[in-house]
Amino acid sequence: MQQLLLLPGLLCDRAVWQDQIKALHDIDCRVPDYGSAASIEDMAQIALQDAAPRFALAGHSMGGRVALEICRQAPERVTRLMLLDTGFQPRAQGEAGAREEQGRLALLRQAREHGMREMGSTWLNGMVHPSRLEDSELVGQILAMIERKTPTIFAAQIEALLSRPDASPLLPRLACPTWLVCGREDSWSPLQRHEEMARLVPGSRLEVIEDSGHMTTMERPEAVSALLRQWLEAA
């Protein structure tokens, strides 16, 4: 049976892929837990430990950065690649990079002082399509997922993102079939960034999920599942 490694993003776990795992019931889907890893490189090592010798690879958000690092560390093991709502550049230098660090650390302080769920409620405003903020089922699932993590894990993952590697040199060297997927209204990892990635990856394909923000796998699960099936079955 073909193995598909599904990589979750910041503060996410298996729940972020739950609908896709159900839809791809004939595929051996694996979702790693990064534990307290504090670098993208270590997260990639953890994901590789229990993976098959060769596997298809899909990463969402921070998981997309981990997927690119896996392609750097073990390109011969990746049969095809899908990157969803993610990025490839390192933290910016100067004022822009400082602003990113301040914003992430402010959320970490809120998590430590008021709990993960309350922090998640603040963070959620930029994570999903504005029309879904009143969707109690979707919001509840995301907040429950965030609440399963701890401030210590949050701090480690923030450290990993702030020190994230530059994957720019890797993109032109990707040799496996590569699809890029982005929510049309993703404000965290905007469509423009994915268009840039598509220009850099030879032969890549870009798909846009309509009426979706950053959390495409949970906001529009059927659309994402259908794309995953097409991608897995493509020549």
From TrEMBL:
It comes from Marinobacterium nitratireducens. It comes from the Bacteria. Residues 5-226 form the AB hydrolase-1 domain. This is Hydrolase. It holds the Pfam family Abhydrolase_6. Keywords: Hydrolase. PANTHER family: AB HYDROLASE-1 DOMAIN-CONTAINING PROTEIN, MONOACYLGLYCEROL LIPASE. The keyword Hydrolase applies. One of its GO terms (molecular function) is hydrolase activity.
